[in-house]
Amino acid sequence: MPLPTPRLVRRAIALATIALCSAAGAQPASSNLKPDAPLSAAQRKAIVDTLAQNLRTRYVYPERIEPVAKQLQARAAKGEYNSAQTVEAMGEALNKDLREIGKDRHFRVAFDPEVEPTPAGDPPKPTREEIDRERAQAARMAYGITRVQRLPGNIGYLDLRGFGPTEFVAAGYDAAMLLLGGTDALVLDLRNNGGGSPASVSYLLSHFFAEGDERHLNDIYDRPANTTREYWTLPISGPRYTKPITVLTSKNTFSGGEECAYDLQTQKRATLYGETTGGAANPGEMVALGHGLAAFVPTGRAINAVTKKDWEQVGVVPEVKLPAADALNAAYLALLEQRVREVKDPEELDQLKDVLTRAQAGKIDLPVYTPRR
Fold first, then answer.
1. Among residues 220, 243, 235, 264, which one has the least CA distance to residue 339?
2. Tally of CA atoms within 13 A in the half-sphere of 295 that contains its CB
3. Which SS3 state, helix, strand or coil, does residue 370 take?
4. What is the DSSP letter of 126?
5. What does the DSSP assignment read for 236-294?
6. N or C: which terminal CB in the chain sees fewer CB atoms within 10 Å?
7. pTM score of the predicted model
8. Separation between Cα atoms, residue 357 and residue 363, nearest integer Å
9. Once rounded to an integer, what is the mean pLDDT over residues 140-158?
10. Looking at domain 142-279+299-360, does it have CATH number 3.90.226.10?
């Protein structure tokens, strides 16, 4: 699923202004809303109708969604949700059905009372309190950066778990790349990256091209606004890293994490190691369904600048396919072998050969991959 984010962060990854429907049965979010609250038959029907209305008006592929909306409403009319007696149970039932019928891994229904219905038109600007709170949360999460490390043989390692709002995470990316700037090659670990802001993907990738080497990375079409936004590398002031890059992927690499890997692959800037990614290209926004339930509805689609395609449902396929748990070791060995072939200084070459021998024997401790749940 998309990277879980509070309200301000969700705005940052949305592709357009979203008018949340206030259909029958929808209620403002409140601390009084409880996941174990009982639901009547009329309330369950109102929740399904609200979901169907949002799908019809906001889902990025209108030609595909009408059968999905009709089927959900038909199930409600037949009483198939009668056993979902509480808010939480209803959310679980709708989450299962929507993902199975809709065939879009971005779909999600969950209890999230922070998602509030808003009037049509531009969404309200975040308050200073909201901005400060989200900035503090980004800092507590280390800007999505779990590990920055210099591995033996002077190979850099960056474990990035998500892409928060650019205004909050940019300085963290700059700092990480400053620390890694002296390494001779880099491993970018996206195996547990759940996605986030496409603007932050562009900001990170701007570090990986020389100054003046502008690249058109990706476009995102937004259905509600009927607009397409282009994403390019940026004229950043942070450090540039033009040495070899390897990207690690897994089936848990999702959304913005997939875009990052795909952009680097299609720009021929990195080699990917690991598993085919999750296959979730469509960004969107949370919409309120009532009683504290909310649904993530994809409102846009990615259009890669090189291939003119996206990775929805098919995922990003690495050049070197192997289990995610084995990807770092394989990539690390490949980068060491490349360095051994390239280095001319005898003393440095001897040191690299020693590191390579120990790595081949499994005597170098590398970061351990634990799949996120």
1. 243
2. 33
3. coil
4. P
5. -SS----S-EEEEE-TT--THHHHHHHHHHHTT--EEEE---------EEEEEEETTEE
6. C
7. 0.83
8. 9
9. 97
10. yes
- Backbone Cα Rg of the chain: 23
Residue that is written with structure tokens 């009547």 in the block: 40
Q: What is the pLDDT of residues 46-82, one digit of tens each?
A: 999 999 999 999 999 999 999 999 999 999 999 999 9
CA 121 to chain centre: 26
Q: What is the mean pLDDT of the chain?
A: 90
- In the structure encoding, which two tokens stand for residue 122, read together? 């531009």
The token duo for 134 is 């989200």
pLDDT, one tens digit per residue, over 313-353 is 899 999 999 999 999 999 999 999 999 999 999 999 999 99
Neighbouring C-beta atoms of residue 308, cutoff 10 Å? 8
pLDDT band at 31 (very low <50, low <70, confident <90, very high): low
All residues at 6 or more sequence positions from 333 whose CB lies less than 8 Å from its CB, including other chains: 356, 359, 360
User: Taking residues 361-371, what's their average pLDDT?
Assistant: 96
Q: Residue 305 contacts by C-beta under 8 Å, 6 or more apart in sequence?
A: 215, 216, 217, 218, 219, 230, 266
Alpha-carbon distance of 95 to 252, in angstroms, equals 19
